[in-house]
Amino acid sequence: MGCPKEFSLKGGMGAALLMNPDKAKEILSTLVQNLKIPVTCKIRVFQTVEDTLQLVEQLVSTGIAAIAIHGRTKQERPQHANRNYLIKAIAQTINIPVIANGGSKEIQQHSDIATFRQECGTSSVMIARTAEDYDNSPNNTKYCIQNMLKELQETPRGKKFLECQTLEQICEIWNLRQYCKEKHLEYNGKGILSRRQVSPNMFCPASKKLKMEDTIEMPYAFIRASFPADPDLPKSKLISWCNKNKKEKPKYQIINEDKLFRAIVYIDGKKYSSTYWEKNKKFAEQGAALVCIWSLGLIDTQTLIDTGSTLK
To answer: Which SUPFAM superfamilies match (predicted)?
Structure first.
């Protein structure tokens, strides 16, 4: 009952339920009476402690196990101050755990979380925006930035942004490429998996994992925007190399598991493959060819780092 977005309010959902306590109580009572797991809810505050407490007491009467309170009204947004004092007043009054929310603006480091909890006098905190500094999907990042840019997408920078396919390319436009790379390496060092490490058998026993014996493998992703012209594509370069050196044309083997694809390219008695699982066969073949042309010296490691195909 905290979402203040227009679509929620018009649909009688989210923060709209703050103005319809009977409906909110009915929903919570139904859940509490029919579920075997604890039921919690989240609300936004009103302008006064008294009005907020009146609603909270009605919700608590349904038997919920805890309540999360965002310290802004439904009209307010992140730029407005969070009413920590109001959350604290509620926490000191009711007899179930209160979860403080809305403090992301003040949370810059881990110790700030404890400070926020203490200011609100709650049992715990709920964090969203501050917790979002992670290896986000390039598609989702691009979608969010597009919504922020709006008509600015028609500017030279906006058009350059629309051509991006990776986080590295997006970050470079705003001079954040080095930061992006450092974050990737930081997460890898902590064992946090990114899209690069995703594989359909990653949680299978070692005996069931794909065996790629005698294959030269590298973690190189094929990024179409890095090869604007068809003659620059890894497969095209590999064909040209074969013709120049009078070698047989390369042959590709596709491996398909759980709608993800890898390829092995056979050339001159050797096998090459990218460890990156692609979403289609064509990109999987280009990825294998990319490893091959790198091995042949047709593309260097620094270029792959610069274009985001690999981290290091």
So the answer is: dsRNA-binding domain-like, FMN-linked oxidoreductases
Regarding the domain delimited by 205-306, which CATH topology (the fold level of the hierarchy) does it fall under? Double Stranded RNA Binding Domain (3.30.160)
Q: Give the pairing type, strands 270-274 and 251-257.
A: unpaired
Q: What's the pLDDT at 203?
A: 57
Q: 146: burial class by Cβ within 10 Å (0-12, 13-18, 19+)? A: middle
Of 285, 288, 305, nearest in space to 296 by CA: 288
* Candidate CATH numbers 3.20.20.70, 1.10.3120.10, 3.20.20.110, 3.50.50.60; the one for domain 6-132: 3.20.20.70
> Which active-site residues does the annotation give?
3
* Element housing 265 (H / E): strand 260-267
271/264 Cα distance (integer angstroms): 6
The secondary structure of residue 226, as a DSSP letter, is: G
pTM beyond 0.70: no
> Could you report the per-residue pLDDT of 106-147, keeping only the tens digit for each?
888 889 999 999 999 999 999 987 766 555 777 888 988 998
Q: Phi, psi (5° rounding) for residue 241?
A: -65, -40
